[in-house]
Write a structure and sequence with these properties.
The chain has 440 residues and is an alpha/beta fold. Helix content is 46%, strand content 16%. Helix 6 links the parallel strand 5 and strand 6. Helix 2 crosses helix 9, helix 5 packs parallel to helix 6 and helix 6 packs parallel to helix 7. The mean pLDDT is 96. It binds nicotinamide-adenine-dinucleotide, L-histidinol and zinc ion (ZN). The site of nicotinamide-adenine-dinucleotide has 31 residues, from helix 3, helix 8 and helix 9. Its cofactor is Zn(2+).
Amino acid sequence: MIQIKRLSSTNAGFDETLAKLLAFESAQDAKVSATVSDILADIKKRGDEALLEYTRRFDRLKAASALELELPQSRLQQALQSLPADQRNALENAAQRVRAYHQKQLAQSWSYVEPDGTLLGQKVTPLDRVGLYVPGGKASYPSSVLMNAIPAKAAGVSELIMVTPASNGETNDLVLAAAAICEVDRVFTIGGAQAVGALAYGTQAVPQVDKIVGPGNAYVAAAKRSVFGIVGIDMLAGPSEILVICDGRTNPDWIAMDLFSQAEHDEMAQAILLSPDARFIEEVAASIARQLEAMPRKAVIRASLENRAALIQVRDLDEACAIANRIAPEHLELSVEQPEKWVEKIRHAGAIFLGRYTSEALGDYCAGPNHVLPTSRTARFSSPLGVYDFQKRSSIIQVSEQGSAKLGEIASILAHGEGLQAHAMSAEYRYKKTITSSDA
Ligand SMILES: NC(=O)c1ccc[n+]([C@@H]2O[C@H](COP(=O)([O-])OP(=O)(O)OC[C@H]3O[C@@H](n4cnc5c(N)ncnc54)[C@H](O)[C@@H]3O)[C@@H](O)[C@H]2O)c1
Ligand SMILES: N[C@H](CO)Cc1c[nH]c[nH+]1
Ligand SMILES: [Zn+2]
């Protein structure tokens, strides 16, 4: 019988128990960080040689040289052509919906002119080259190809470099077909911290990128965190999480399966239910026990639920929303009557799914919004992957002759106040016009 933690918000020590549940087990966390830092240092030092060794070790890919880690475009096209029609249609439908949603995020350059002719603005530029991490250790993720590549393309990024591990040496045709549909420029069959390192530092075979985006397991998330600064990263999108708030009036089988849906990603995934209805919590627990045996990935689900899940009885839905804000989950389902009323109270969540019919799984594949989302409480300050992650902004300042007098005076006073003489004189030259030979 599966053992899942039962908590009640009225219990003494509830806050501490919840905090402990949310934190990664610190010994494990430290072990992952140490492994990742060794791998990154090795990739930086030995490049392709190390990349090949780790890829052979972790993914059991039998490549003779680092050059074999890259797949030719013909392989992507072959995968696309070989797909059964229903899979190709589903992929293309999902791509079209994800594209339609993300096009709305495209930021444009803007500027305005002040009465004295000074022009101010913001120039928006796409990144030149990005690395897209598509997970592939315990499952294959064609949907993550769409979620990574479509916003990058919409932003106008010139070069998309995708990495994905060939677990047990095997590539996945749906993943490669998705790369073909999205017109990804180059695909490497590498994963984990070694792939992140290769993209961040560059090796002979793998080009250095400007930014690495995409989800992955704890090793990938830790590696992305470590290389930030050498390259940009989108966010920490680690092991999946689902938090369900239910008023007790949704079919318990549906809720149990929603919890499974994220638990089946990874032993480190986290699934939590909050409900004020004690009887409903018992029904969900019974449904979990009953449905688990039939799940092909029951071992992963069981490990995830036993280690990191909780069924929590709360006083009421107000308290459930307050706890949700504290958890700041990657995914939040509001399986309640009038979800549009309760969503007003939610401030921190990667994606919010409203109503009994909105299963989180729809967001994973095809609703339209991105499924690359912040985890481990980082939804308090991070957002879903979007077109904005592939665009950057430069400020534009063009001061007119008239404007240089007005701004020059302000700047000069402030510069003197800061004790920065050169700043002051640089501003003053423009409006006093007494010193340079060309002005004479
Ligand atoms: N937050 C999000 O937006 C989001 C979206 C999709 C998936 N996910 C998560 O992505 C993850 C996918 O994980 P995955 O494992 O299937 O694929 P993955 O590609 O993220 O990880 C596989 C790689 O991990 C490395 N690895 C595994 N065990 C290791 C060890 N002991 N030491 C060093 N390296 C090791 C290997 O290099 C391997 O290639 C899951 O946790 C899933 O929940 C998150
Ligand atoms: N739930 C994942 C994000 O945590 C995304 C995904 C892809 N495929 C299935 N699920
Ligand atoms: Zn999922």
